[in-house]
Amino acid sequence: MLTALAQAGGAVDDCAGASLWALSDDDLLACLDATHVLAQRLAAVQLGLVREVDSRGLAVAQGASSTSIWLRERLRLSSRSARQLVQLAAAVDAAPQAVRDALLSGAMTVEQGRVVAETIAALPLEAGPEVADKATQLLVTWADRFDPTILSRLGERVLTHVAPALADQAELAALEKATERAVARRHVTLSEQQDGQVRLSGNLDTETAEPATGGDRPALRPGR
Q1: How far apart are CA 109 and CA 41, in angstroms?
Q2: Beta-carbon count within 10 A of 107 CB
Q3: Distance CA 129, CA 171 (A)
Q4: Selection from 220, 150, 144 nearest residue 188 by Cα
Q5: Residue 36: in which H helix or E strand, if any?
């Protein structure tokens, strides 16, 4: 692998020394596209290396408290960049093989790969490997047409395309959880004041508060 990387470095030297002004418009654009694809492919290789370093515990063995801190020092990265690199390497490693294949072939950018990996990881357990593979293939196909932001939005609804019945169940479960959270946040507190009055305070959602504030019903007032 070191030999191959050295050869790649030599190719980069050749490209850096080329006379860009001599390129035709078509060749200039083709070279731009090619460098972008190669940069993404090489970044995917780096992710694999980072994941292997992390799984072997090399950073800790060399006295660092974590792989991200070790990467920060070794590669002179910011703390945030190093942390994100480790997290992305783990996410891609846990994703279906199709995600890694798309990254290594240049069919998908690293940023798109992050979106796809996180989307697949967020699928409900009921989805299973078959549905996850279908969702992955669809997202990889969409990556050829959509940027990471749009791809992320499409990913939120990917189950409706590959498993509609499961998507309905997931939406119902999400609605039930949201309702439970809303109920948990509702509360009313009565506090007795020194002047003999009672202070009423708390949180109500719009639906619960409507009978007390809407129509001809009188608003709630502190009682004695």
Answers
A1: 8
A2: 18
A3: 20
A4: 220
A5: helix 25-56
Put simply, whether the predicted model's pTM sits higher than 0.85 gets the answer: no
Instruction: Take residue 104 and report the two structure tokens written for it.
Output: 């290594």
Q: Is 110:88 a contact under the CB 8 Å cutoff?
A: yes
Which string of b and e fits 156-188 if b means at least 16 CB within 10 Å?
Answer: eebbeebbeebbeebeeeeeeeeeeeeeeeeee
CA distance 166 to 123: 10
How confident is the model over 21-66, as pLDDT tens digits? 999 999 999 999 999 999 999 999 999 999 999 999 999 999 999 9
Q: How far apart are CA 195 and CA 208, in angstroms?
A: 29
| Residues 6 or more apart whose Cβ sits within 8 Å of residue 219 | 212, 213
Amino acid at 195: D
* Alpha carbons 23 and 126: distance in angstroms, whole number: 54
Q: Are 121 and 109 in contact (CB under 8 A)?
A: no
Separation between Cα atoms, residue 157 and residue 28, nearest integer Å: 38
